[in-house]
Amino acid sequence: MHVHFCELSRHEAPFRHYYPNGLDAYIVRLQLEGVCQALVDGAMKEIRPGDLMLFQPGDMYDLRIGYSEATQLSSDLYFLGNGEGMQEWWERRERAKVANLAENNRLKSLWQQIILEKRRLDGGSPEMITALVWSLLLQIDRAMDEAPENLSPLAFHALRMRQYIEEHAAEAFTLKEVARHTGLSVSRAVHLFKQHFGVSIIGYAQQLRLGRAVSLLEHSPLSLEQIAAETGLGSYAYFHRLFRERYGISPGAYRRRRS
After folding, report:
1. What is the C-alpha separation between 248 and 234, in angstroms, rounded?
2. Cα–Cα distance between 185 and 180 in angstroms, integer?
3. Does 20 or 102 have the greater pLDDT score?
4. What does the longest C-alpha to C-alpha distance in the chain come to?
5. How many of the other CB atoms lie within 10 Å of CB of 203?
6. What is the distance of C-alpha 198 from the center of its chain?
7. Spatial contact of 97 and 47, defined as CB atoms under 8 Å apart
């Protein structure tokens, strides 16, 4: 897998990226801020924040920024690449040229790691870049599975909350912080999350924390108190109670049984 370019792009003046004779590489582009227009299936389409663009070699490509909007500010993450790995990923499913994704910080983090690796004086490690790009592409597939085209605004908010919880499960967070992340009231956020996922916000966080605790019990030398702190469960007493309620055995007994 070869990445020709991978960058965070920011435009404050009119800009056009045009391949009238077709691309010679794959383009993956995520709109972060502002609005632009792109040629999609023969017509110019408005591209808004959260829109992911996917084009393959041979596709005509016409991206225009600042041509029709009063504001010309636009930013995006993008990469151009090719190789057997890119082709293999592309052919795994039908690829819409534009799809809207729920906000996903994991995508942005992986993209940033690729950018930093490519900026090294030696051009970066090909093996590391390939691994990072594969991770990014698989994360894109997951994000697309979780955000189909008919994703409702309420489902979008629910997904953003779930992503926030997954990213902060090892930390102490409040319901107010989860609600603020999506711009909802606490009561609305609590109801919406339970409605979409069949579990409460706190219940979902506990599942994530206990799952990580099991992994640490099996594969780490950390003490039970350290595991409680590392997973965001806080005190050992709380960890012990939740673990026994879920698995019917104490954390210490579980570790001894596995050893």
Report:
1. 20
2. 7
3. 20
4. 66
5. 12
6. 22
7. no
